[in-house]
Amino acid sequence: MNTVLKVLVVLAGLFFVVMGLRWAVDPAGAAATLGMPLLEGAARSSQMADIGVFFLAGGLFIFTAVITARRSWYHVPALIMFGAAIYRLIAWLFHDAAFVVDGIAVEVIVGSLLLFAGARLARD
User: How far apart are CA 59 and CA 15, in angstroms?
Assistant: First the structure.
């Protein structure tokens, strides 16, 4: 069970790192994957930096959790995932954004997986 759980967590981390790096080398493709246009000018700079580092840091935090086996490191990317889901809900409820079920589902599932993994795999 723990091996399967660790593999799932590593796959999630790998996905996030690849998405983060994709923002550096193929921003138009990365944006399209998320259902958004690639913005222009200063907006593109912010879009690439903010979203790219969101994914890259999230993935690196996941890898840090697996390598160190410390519960607190599992909590860091879980907080990021749940925070993103909450902001999606805020965007939908108060700012006329689309309700993006797929995005919320991924964030809640990965966040929950990380909390569960932290409880099962952590040595502290």
Answer: 7
Tokens representing 54 are 């969101």
Tally of domains in the chain: 1
Contact 48, 24 (CB under 8 A): yes
Query: Which residue range forms the structural domain that includes residue 60?
Result: 2-121
CA dist 114 → 11, 56, 68, 98, 111 (Å): 12, 16, 14, 27, 5
pLDDT truncated to tens, each residue of the chain (124 aa)?
Answer: 899 999 999 999 999 999 999 999 999 999 999 999 999 999 999 999 999 999 999 999 999 999 999 999 999 999 999 999 999 999 999 999 999 999 999 999 999 999 999 999 999 7
